[in-house]
Amino acid sequence: MDAFLAIASKRDERRYAERPIPPEVVERVLDAGRLCGNSQNKQAWRFLVVEDAERRERLAGALYSPANVRGAALAIAITGRAFDAGRCSQNMMLAAWNEGVTSCPNGIRDAAAAAEALGLEEGELAIVLSLGFPASGRDAARRTAEGWSERADRKPLSELVTRL
Ligand SMILES: Cc1cc2nc3c(=O)[nH]c(=O)nc-3n(C[C@H](O)[C@H](O)[C@H](O)COP(=O)(O)O)c2cc1C
Prior knowledge:
The chain is built from eight helices and four strands, in the order H-H-E-H-H-E-H-E-H-E-H-H. By secondary structure, it is of the alpha+beta class.
């Protein structure tokens, strides 16, 4: 998929098909995180693939939107500094979308409970990604990048950009 088409057509999806994500796709998503640029290249992050059902449920209960993680084929918890984790998340989510896998970032409601569910210190966890093939059959190829851009629920550049 063209990089800009992937960016323009990527929306955060919260409902996933039951279909599992092939292991090679999971590996590629994780590698997209590994490859991400980061502060001083310290790579001070970890990617926790939450497979254990009990852990997953405890984590879900500590998030603002538990159903996103409960219904996801794949849940990845990312530790580290917010800016690095943000870049890393978007790398992973775009790599996933390139394979037709949708996703959503999930904010943490109860930091202590989330840390405990994952065996982390409080404050280490930055974000949790839920991923899966879309329940809706969303398809990037349905429109051009420009078509997706025009339809996006976003402020226009004229409101966002200042040239100084
Ligand atoms: C830091 C962060 C935390 C978020 N937390 C949640 C969340 O807890 N639950 C949820 O459903 N979506 C969450 N989102 C997704 C946003 O709601 C979404 O990016 C925004 O509504 C735009 O969605 P769209 O790209 O589909 O238009 C989060 C996004 C970010 C960047």
